[in-house]
Amino acid sequence: MFRTLPVQLLSTFSSTYPAGDNDGLLWAGRGVSQLASAGVGFRWRALSLALAPEVTWSENRFFDTVPYGRSGAQRFGNAFYGNGIDLPQRFGAGPWAAWGPGQSYLRLDHWNVALGLSTENLWIGPGVRSSILMSNAGPGFPHVFLGTSRPADIWIGNAGALIFWGRLERTPYIA
To answer: Are 137 and 23 in contact (CB under 8 A)?
Structure first.
């Protein structure tokens, strides 16, 4: 059975300094930033599929950054973390645009076991506002997974399991 996925249009405006929180592919730079997503889903017995690409654009107006002492794209890297974390202060000197596969997946569920390929965000950790381990503060990433389809009742609460393997790509703002 085919279904259309909700159309998502997000728009932010930051007048003085960029600010965003768990926005996925959207980088809420200074000025206007926007994200659009739409897609289709399919389910047949134990097989499900969603194709939900995203596209984003940020005005990325000028704002002061902490000098990093590097040239080229790496001058926008984070002076506080160096190469320890890929957390740029800014995504280049002008408008910034990107696209990605978004919250797309191919999944097989049988009994209480799920196996699949995905580019969805993973929210892993005990935090409510900050997951601590993984969140949707950046775009999802390509990964394969094996886990429970839904949490199991273990008398003192619910428990689930997830094993995944994926690859993260670095931005050009880190060496």
So the answer is: yes
From 91, 148, 140, 149, select the one nearest 120 (Cα to Cα).
140
> If we measure between CA atoms, which residue out of 78, 82, 91 comes closest to residue 23?
91
Residue 151 per-residue DSSP state: P
**Which pTM value belongs to this model?**
0.87
> What pLDDT, on the 0 to 100 scale, is given for residue 39?
97
> Lowest-pLDDT range, 15-24, 93-102, 148-157?
15-24
Average pLDDT over residues 150-155: 92
Task: List the one residue out of 84, 162, 151, 152 whose CA is nearest residue 123.
Answer: 162
For the chain, the straight-line distance linking the first and the last C-alpha, in angstroms and rounded, comes to 46
In this structure, how many other beta carbons lie within 10 angstroms of the beta carbon of residue 116?
19
Strands (E), the chain: 2-14, 31-44, 47-51, 54-58, 96-100, 105-110, 113-118, 143-148, 152-153, 158-159, 162-166
Asked if 160 and 152 count as a contact pair (C-beta separation under 8 A), the reply is yes
pLDDT digit string, tens, across residues 59-69: 999 998 898 88
* Mean pLDDT over the full length of the chain: 91
User: What's the CA gap between 10 and 48, in Å, rounded?
Assistant: 26
DSSP 3-state assignment of 119?
coil
- In this structure, the number of other CB atoms found within 10 A of the CB of residue 121 comes to 20
